[in-house]
Amino acid sequence: MADPDNFRVHSIDHIKKLPDADKARAILEECARHIRPLLQARRFPQPRCSVRSAFASARDRAATASQARRWRVLKLYEICCCTAGGKNLGVGGFCCPAGDGVTSLRIAIRLRTPGHGPQADEWGAHSLRDLDHAMKVLIHEVSHIVHGNHSAAFYTLMAELTRQYETYLQKGQVLDEAGMPLTGGRKADASRHNPSLREARLAALGAAEARARTGAILGGGGRLGGGGDVCEYGPQ
Q1: Alpha-carbon distance 231 to 18, whole Å?
Q2: Which stretches make up the WLM domain (predicted)?
Q3: Between the N and C ends of the chain, which has fewer C-beta atoms within 10 Å?
Q4: 211 contacts: CB under 8 Å, gap ≥ 6
Q5: CB burial readout 154-193, b (16+ within 10 A) else e
Q6: Percent of the chain with pLDDT over 90
């Protein structure tokens, strides 16, 4: 059986001579944590609204389960206008795929504004961009593991990864450096993640009251949005 620990970013490297080098490394480390679920995950299921048989649903679930990506990035590193790989300011990053469809030998990301030019004048020379910017570039470059050129299939995959990443953030399936889930891109409150017994009971009571109110509105056992086709999820 394949080792899940292999499907991740294996090493990172930042430019140590630039200002805020420790912050640049922290951004790369966070990028590595955020991209890991996407490297390991099954393909993101797409909604398909139709009435389908139980056999077809089971077949789709089995097909989705067999499509785990199992990608890996051997090296994630920073480039800048002052490094050999970052001279072209029009390039936000690049990927060197191994050619096996699952491995990137290295991915480079431009984390900073250039040291000169309009962006430097506006934001400051070599100022760090935020994590959201870095993740957009990283998701773009990770898509090149499978598709070398900017084809329609490439952009379809990039959109799939972006949707899946946003879903993981909303569900708190991306962890911070302390192992706490992030919700909506923000660190979850530890007290909310591990509520006290009293808080848990109050939450359960509130949920029960909400269900009772909904039942009264629906007239006893109805379902919001009922009727029409059944919306199921199958592989893209």
Answers
A1: 52
A2: 1-213
A3: N
A4: none
A5: beebbebbbebbeebbeebebbeeeeeebbeeeebeeeee
A6: 47
